[in-house]
Amino acid sequence: MDTPAHDIEQLTGMVAGGVQIVLFTTGRGTPLGSPIAPVIKITGNRDTYLKMKDNMDMDVSRILEGKEKVSSAGKRIFEEVISVSSGKVTKAEKQAQRDFCIFKMNMNI
Fold it and tell me: What's the structural domain count of the chain?
């Protein structure tokens, strides 16, 4: 989906477009969530995960370390989506992160 680049605007755009569960990949660990749809935050940066365990739902850094296959991490992500779909609360929901922002287009071309 073509969304604005800013994380919160991007999240709002995806949800407005009909996304029911957001898989938000982050290296820096942007602490965000949506008031409308659950946000599963995934990082491939081990340091980010260790520093932000309260904000990150999943760590897939073992792929980069050669200790996990992409297919295995993909299966874990899929299983997390099923769990969240079945009522599991995400870290963003636990932290009451309810971010919302509407992108304003500059029409002065």
Answer: 1
pLDDT one-digit tens code per residue, 13-58: 888 889 999 999 998 888 888 899 999 999 999 999 999 999 999 9
Q: Would residue 52 count as lying in a domain?
A: yes
Is residue 5 a part of any domain in this protein? Answer: no
Query: 61 in a domain, yes or no?
Result: yes
Contact between 3 and 14 (Cβ < 8 Å): yes
94 closest CA partner among 60, 59, 65, 53:
53
Q: What is the 3-state secondary structure (H, E, C) of the chain?
A: CCCCCCHHHHHHHHHHCCCCCEEEECCCCCCCCCCCCCEEEEECCHHHHHHCCCCCCEECCCCCCCCCCHHHHHHHHHHHHHHHHCCCCCHHHHCCCCCCCCCCCCCCC
